[in-house]
Amino acid sequence: MAVRYQITLCDGPTCMHKRSKEIDAALERELASRGLSGKVDISLSGCLGMCAKGPIMIVNPGYTIYGGVSENDIPEIVEKHLVRKQPVSRLIIEEDHLYNRFFRVFGDVNFFGRQMRIALRNCGIIDPENLDDYLSVRGYEALAKVLSAMKPEDVIAEVKSSGLRGRGGAGFPTGLKWELTAREESEEKYVICNADEGDPGAFMDRSTIEGDPFSVLEGMIVGGYAVGAHKGIIYIRAEYPLAVKRLEKAIEASRNEGFLGTNILDSGFSFDIEIRLGAGAFVCGEETALIHSIEGHRGMPRPRPPYPSVQGLFDKPTLINNVETWANIPVIILDGAAWFSSIGTEKSKGTKVFAIAGKIKNTGLVEVPMGTTLRQIIFDIGGGIPNGKKFKAVQTGGPSGGCLPEAYLDTKIDYESLAQAGSIMGSGGMIVIDEDSCMVSIARFFLEFTQNESCGKCTPCREGTKRMLEILTRITEGKGAEGDIEKLERLGNMIKKASLCGLGQSAPNPVLSTIRHFRDEYEEHIKERKCRAHFCARLVRYEITDKCAGCAACRKVCPAGAISGIVKNRHEIDQAKCIKCGLCYKTCKFGAINKV
Amino acid sequence: METTKDIRAAELGEFMARCRTSPRPESHLIAILHKAQSLYGYLSNAVMDEVSEAMNIPAAHIWGVATFYHYFNLKPKGKHTIAVCLGTACYVKGAEEVLEAIKEELKIGMGETTQDGLFTLQEARCLGACGLAPVVMIDEKIYGGLTPKKAVDILKAYRKQR
């Protein structure tokens, strides 16, 4: 016995009362008979507070909590747990739900303590390349339950009543999508997992797959059974090689053990999954574009209807859900729709995973119940803004979303309230912006992205985003004109209404939301030629302060000859000649040049 | 004697032969282009013609697909590929300054290759390593928490290695 076990017996009043002193004696006796006396530490504790389940016994390492222990159980515990290292499962106090398994591992870290992990329940807990590990956390049990005890329509009814909505961003009710696909009659149907996570600043899907690829597979197989499909495809970015590798391993292991392939678990149901790689096109996150890409074409969207549920991949009925949506399915099946729908807000149920990044202390991945406020995520879990800087805005939903200012920090996370505030839920990217960032430039950044990614099929998106970008570029360069803001608003609303797919319909959002919440910054850029964050290079004024030692380094480096002065005396910048290249600022060793 | 080129052609040929046996061969086009690029480093007209022949897909269609997706290169690349992440988190944390410093150091623009054939400069759309922002990936290696100076130092180290 290499491990030294520690046994703690709860010695609170209730346990003491319930537990005859026989337990202590039986334990001593049993250890002695196996020659383990002195090799196991035994201690008493104060009341644990779990009085209803007493007498309580805790075995470490492993933090196994046994409840209702009697002296008759002692020989079994010693024999099985201490000698053979197999905890006695019938006595372990364990919740039978799947979520929040991480508490046992990292529950005492504040960052985790405020989260609720459903989609990420196994991430960090299991070895993602080991099927046995997945099985040990009740993996594939939902699949077994569905195949043995539920009809396809029961599965759909369960998903429908759970209130789960698409986690890709748009929030379409998942159960309804399943029902629409199931309703179609066709020999051939497809199930697709959308893992084309293209939002810059978002890495939820990558982490979910890298941490627990099996949950996604299990969700897809259940989905296939529910809608009557036998073929699943995971469309994933080529930029995620590790996630692809883990998926390949998980698919192979699941196939070898009969969870995937023909006649799954002897149920007569067959389903197989293959992986298709994307090739770097943001628009392929849109479902009809994604379908075209899998078919081997340019990833361009087409008008809907017909929806993929009617006419999708290879013109067959197709069910498409996002990675996080799929990962929620096993939990809904095992813990039940009633439980799932008890979490969250009226119209948004369950949890949402967010990738928080930008100017925030705890960059990373968090999963919180719907209804959590932005403030709780950013300040309680995220730890707030580093370097004593001031919070300026939070950007949710990536290039399709918007920026919300401080006044909206108490907005509750759900599809409707974020939309109402002028942003969107999106797939879960959350970028925190501090006072050093310029909101006009942020809007320009996103628009540059969407403009570049616009597939070019429809005119409003192709031409409109280009014109908007030109105006924004002009403003950040100090050439903004009266009326530009109104022009942006008019164009933006037009593009939103007239574009073919989600990309164009949401591309103006970052611009419109920054105009709505940070209009004064736009006006400053245009009217005062000023960028308060000192971010827009052309709007910065460089000034030499008293710290100047007169070393003349700036004068020598200035390409415009705008700096004059005598050695060892304070130098001056001629603003009329300055081309705002910033070279003097970078060159000065005395910190004597200020951006104003 | 078999040259490297023949070996690559044979491997690509084999891959396409496998695709041809699947129910919808033409749907594997993107996978085939991935394979070709991993073998040759980029997609030349000759390779695309080869794919066209073998898969019975019009060359114009292949050209359309190859130019649509950012991942495919139509020009040969340098020995090292520098991908500067321009995702939001990196942008907020100063990726543009890093990019400018790299451009200045290498005297090339986005998508170009240095004269000595050592570096190709590309932009990446979020590598998902936002915790390390700003991030640059050189070949398969990620460099995080960069400043313009650190980035230039890294490039100098690569030059020395040579």
- Give the overall average pLDDT of chain B: 92
The helix content of chain A, as a percent range, equals 25-40%
User: In percent, how much strand structure appears in the residues of chain B?
Assistant: 5-15%
Uncertain segments of chain A are none
CATH superfamily of the largest domain in chain B: Glutaredoxin
Most extensive interface, residues per chain? Answer: A-B, 44 and 34 residues
- How many discrete domains of chain B? 2
What is the topology, as strand order, of the major beta sheet of chain B? 2-1-3-4
- Mean pLDDT of chain A equals 92
- The number of helical segments of chain B is 7
CATH superfamily of the largest domain in chain A: NADH-ubiquinone oxidoreductase 51kDa subunit
CATH architecture of the largest domain in chain B: 3-Layer(aba) Sandwich
Assembly of the depicted chains: heterodimer
- Please bin the fraction of helical residues of chain B: 40-55%
Going by helix content, strand content and strand pairing, the class of chain B is alpha+beta
Architecture per CATH nomenclature, i.e. the level-2 architecture of the largest domain in chain A: 3-Layer(aba) Sandwich
**CATH fold naming of the largest domain in chain B:** Glutaredoxin
How far apart lie the N and C ends of chain A?
A: 70 Å
Can you describe what's shown?
The complex is a heterodimer of chains A (596) and B (162). Chain A is of the alpha/beta class. Chain A folds into 5 domains: 6-91, Glutaredoxin (3-Layer(aba) Sandwich), CATH 3.40.30; 131-338, Rossmann fold (3-Layer(aba) Sandwich); 351-434, Roll (Ubiquitin-like (UB roll)); 439-528, NADH-ubiquinone oxidoreductase 51kDa subunit, iron-sulphur binding domain (de novo design (two linked rop proteins), Up-down Bundle); 540-595, Alpha-Beta Plaits. In chain A, a hairpin with a 3-residue loop joins strand 3 and strand 4 (64-66). Chain B has 2 domains: 4-68; 80-161, Glutaredoxin, CATH 3.40.30.10. In chain B, a hairpin with a 2-residue loop joins strand 3 and strand 4.
